[in-house]
Amino acid sequence: MRIAATADLHFTPQRYAVLRDQLSKIRDDADLLVLAGDLTNYGQPAEMEPLVNALVRLRVPTVAVLGNHDYESGREADLMQMMTAEGIRVRRRIWARRTNRFRRT
User: Fold this and answer.
1) pLDDT at 92
2) Which end of the chain is more exposed for a tag (fewer CB within 10 A), N or C?
3) Domains in the chain: boundaries
4) Counting beta carbons within 10 angstroms of the beta carbon of residue 83, is it exposed (0 to 12), middle (13 to 18) or buried (19 or more)?
5) How far apart, in whole angstroms, are the C-alpha atoms of residue 56 and residue 74?
6) Are the beta carbons of 48 and 82 closer than 8 angstroms?
7) What is the 3-class SS of the chain, one letter each residue?
8) CA 97: distance to chain centroid?
9) Which range (1-15, 20-34, 61-75, 86-100) has the least confidence?
10) Cβ–Cβ under 8 Å, residues 33 and 7
């Protein structure tokens, strides 16, 4: 299995063309795409919508986990719903905010 992974996209709609070109290379080279946190800058659905559109067009199974920037606006449930509605698997975050230590979930 060939896995492509990236993190810290900090996606904004203005970066759509650049990201689309980069993602198009994944379609031929990977069986799975892993997105590891900070998918957006501020956790706004308006940032996530074009990103999800680009990811769906890849037609590559995708697994994602949100990062701290994706929680910034308090809309993380909306972002996760947007992704899961389009078949992107979203893993729950394992970071415990109060203790700043990792824990099992």
Assistant:
1) 74
2) N
3) 3-102
4) buried
5) 24
6) yes
7) CCEEEEECCCECHHHHHHHHHHHHHHHHHCCEEEEECCCECCCCHHHHHHHHHHHHHHCCCEEEECCHHHHCCCCHHHHHHHHHHCCCEEECCCEECCCCEECCC
8) 20
9) 86-100
10) no
- 3 and 29 Cβ atoms separated by less than 8 Å: no
Residue pointed to by tokens 């698997």: 89
Residue 7: its pLDDT value, please?
93
Its pTM surpasses 0.90: no
CA angle 93, 5, 92 (to 5 degrees): 15
- The string of pLDDT tens digits covering residues 1-11 is 999 999 999 99
Cα 1–Cα 37–Cα 52 angle in degrees, nearest 5: 75
Token readout for 82 is 């947007």
